[in-house]
């Protein structure tokens, strides 16, 4: 048996995943997440994007704690990945050098297409679906794919996510009509650049990412379900999703914090993450949503064990 650790340096959170790999399969035995907001400040400017000192320090502190969890495991393999915030930042190499010095790991900065592909692999191997559209809403980007007969016919990464969109359209607090209109127009422009998305019309939409998980858990609580971590494969109607989004759209920051409860740390960026999803649902006449816990990390693990 091999212990495979994934260090995932995301745009909104930094994650640890410890997995036992044996005979071509894997089982996650431990996971941790720290909200580090690597994409902080990146939505405020159209110019050069820089990882902020505070965000770097938060991430390095999280990695220091994570290292204590895995460093003494036998037969250890550690893989580090980074996504949109590091991909876009002009000072990313200096940051990655700090990570290497701290952990000994050469972090792979995934391209946008690679991120979307691994999302597809993670979903394909964990949900029994042949035809679907996929959207993974991250902090600094969101990934899209149309899958037919089990194959990704098109995929893309859009270089804007929940954190950067929130900053760009002032969505931290009560979203004004003016900013919402600007936000929707901007998202429509992004979708217009991906005409292949129309191939996903009427298909179920598989959702990944923190903002979407918050919706899944809200729906599960409404149904009276107790274990809110078991959201993989949970389904809901498009109308129910839009009702939840509309409810939160009418709240200010403190009201959303109270409404979100244990998910309150997402209250400032939740509208930034959900507004593109709501628009996608309506534009493509999506009938049903399915939530997936498997995404990039799982896609990488599936690829590793089948090599």
UniProtKB/TrEMBL annotation:
Residue intervals of the Ppx/GppA phosphatase N-terminal domain: 18-305
- Superkingdom per UniProt: Bacteria
Read off the CDD domains from this record: ASKHA_NBD_HpPPX-GppA-like
Which Pfam family, an example, fits this chain?
Ppx-GppA
Checking InterPro entries in the record gives: ATPase_NBD, GppA/Ppx_hydrolase, Ppx_GppA_N
Q: Which GO terms describe its biological process?
A: regulation of transcription by RNA polymerase II
User: What does the sequence similarity comment in the record state about its family?
Assistant: Belongs to the GppA/Ppx family.
- State what protein this is by name: Exopolyphosphatase
- Taxonomic path: Bacteria, Bacillati, Bacillota, Bacilli, Lactobacillales
């Amino acid at each position: 048996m091999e212990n495979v650790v994934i260090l995932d340096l995301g745009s909104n959170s930094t994650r640890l995943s410890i997995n036992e790999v044996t005979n071509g399969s894997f089982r996650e035995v431990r996971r941790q997440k720290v909200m580090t907001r690597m994409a902080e400040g990146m939505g405020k400017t159209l110019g050069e994007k820089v990882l902020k000192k505070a965000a770097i320090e938060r991430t390095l502190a999280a990695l220091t704690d994570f290292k204590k969890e895995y460093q003494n495991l036998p037969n250890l393999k550690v893989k580090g990945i980074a996504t949109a915030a590091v991909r876009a930042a002009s000072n990313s190499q200096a940051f990655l050098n700090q990570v290497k010095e701290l952990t000994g790991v050469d972090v792979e900065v995934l391209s946008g297409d690679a991120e979307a592909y691994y999302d597809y692999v993670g979903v394909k191997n964990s949900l029994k679906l042949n035809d679907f559209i996929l959207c993974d809403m991250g902090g600094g980007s969101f990934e899209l794919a149309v899958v037919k007969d089990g194959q990704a016919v098109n995929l893309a990464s859009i270089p804007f996510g929940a954190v950067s969109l929130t900053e760009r359209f002032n969505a931290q607090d009560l979203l004004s009509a003016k900013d919402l209109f600007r936000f929707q127009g901007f998202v429509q422009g992004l979708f217009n650049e991906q005409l292949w998305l129309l191939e996903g019309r009427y298909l179920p939409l598989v959702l990944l990412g923190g903002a979407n998980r918050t919706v899944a858990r809200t729906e599960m609580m409404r149904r009276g379900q107790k274990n809110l971590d078991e959201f993989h494969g949970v389904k809901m109607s498009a109308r129910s999703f839009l009702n939840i989004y509309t409810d939160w759209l009418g709240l200010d920051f403190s009201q959303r914090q109270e409404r979100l409860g244990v998910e309150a740390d997402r209250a400032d960026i939740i509208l930034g993450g959900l507004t593109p999803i709501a628009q996608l649902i309506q534009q493509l006449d999506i009938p049903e949503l399915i939530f997936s816990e498997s995404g990039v990390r799982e896609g990488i693990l599936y690829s590793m064990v089948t090599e």
